[in-house]
């Protein structure tokens, strides 16, 4: 891949896993971080008015999970067959369900409703969803699917810091040790380790 650019905000969230995948694959790329106050100038230039956006030789790829899946195929991080691809997609869809609930809370403008929704989801949704993630990682020898490293592991590792912050759970790693171990495994990969050590700070 040539002339690669990745557009996102100056946070980790849905793009950090993509950044780590590119680094892991030895792919040079321009890491374009758009400040919130400049987003309105960029929004109309994006097909779905959303970030992240991956650009390769002028062609743009949008939607975070679709980009991760594409990079997985390009970088040898997808499944070996249709069943293995399904296993990755299935657990990532489960994670996306949880992320979508987190986003509902994040973008709730009313402080009272934000608190109500956070407490409701923290009681009725997040624990069960995270328990399924813990169980799935245990069943796959410390990985998200198929007992081996995949693009799904990078996607979730990229969200890990954000989970701690957005779920308001500083002891997240203690409560969910398999997720913590998966994150540690990904960020310990040689090229990724260097990237994480030098990346701009963000708590989500």
- Written as H for each helix and E for each strand, in order along the chain, the element string is EHEHEEHHHHHHHH
Rg over C-alpha atoms, rounded to the nearest angstrom:
17 Å
Termini separation comes to 28 Å
Shape summary: globular
Question: What proportion of the residues is helical, as a percent range?
Answer: 55-70%
Count of beta strands: 4
Per CATH, which architecture of the largest domain?
Answer: Up-down Bundle
Keywords: Transferase
EC number: 2.5.1.18
Protein name: glutathione transferase
Catalytic activity: RX + glutathione = an S-substituted glutathione + a halide anion + H(+)
Structural notes for this entry:
- With 204 residues, the protein is of the alpha+beta class.
- It folds into 2 domains: 4-76 and 190-198, Glutaredoxin (3-Layer(aba) Sandwich); 82-188, Glutathione S-transferase Yfyf (Class Pi), Chain A, domain 2.
- The chain contains 10 helices and 4 strands, in the order βαβαββαααααααα.
- The protein has helices at 13-24, 39-43, 64-74, 82-106, 111-124, 126-139, 151-166, 172-175, 177-187, 190-198; strands spanning 4-8, 30-33, 53-56, 59-62.
- A 4-stranded mixed sheet has the order 2-1-3-4.
- Helix 4 (82-106) packs antiparallel against helix 5 (111-124) and helix 4 (82-106) packs parallel to helix 7 (151-166).
- The mean pLDDT is 93.
A few lines on this structure:
Residues 81-204 form the GST C-terminal domain. The protein is of the alpha+beta class and 204 residues long.
């Amino acid at each position: 891949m040539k002339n690669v650019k990745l557009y996102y905000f100056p946070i980790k969230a849905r793009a950090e896993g993509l950044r780590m995948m590119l680094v892991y694959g030895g792919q040079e790329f321009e890491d374009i971080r758009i400040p919130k106050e400049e987003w309105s100038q960029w929004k109309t230039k994006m097909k779905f008015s959303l970030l992240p956006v991956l650009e390769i030789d002028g062609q743009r790829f949008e939607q975070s999970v679709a980009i991760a899946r594409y990079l997985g195929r390009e970088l040898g991080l997808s499944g070996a067959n249709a069943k293995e691809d399904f296993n990755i997609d299935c657990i990532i869809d489960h994670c996306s369900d949880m992320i979508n609930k987190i986003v509902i809370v994040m973008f709730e403008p009313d402080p009272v409703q934000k608190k109500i929704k956070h407490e409701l989801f923290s009681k009725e949704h997040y624990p069960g969803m995270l328990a399924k993630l813990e169980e799935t990682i245990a069943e796959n020898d410390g990985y998200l699917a198929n007992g081996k490293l995949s693009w799904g592991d990078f996607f979730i590792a990229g969200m890990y810091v954000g989970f701690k912050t957005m779920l308001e759970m500083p002891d997240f790693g203690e409560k969910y040790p398999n997720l913590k171990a998966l994150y540690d495994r990904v960020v310990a990969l040689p090229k990724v380790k260097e990237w994480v050590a030098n990346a701009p700070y963000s708590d989500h």
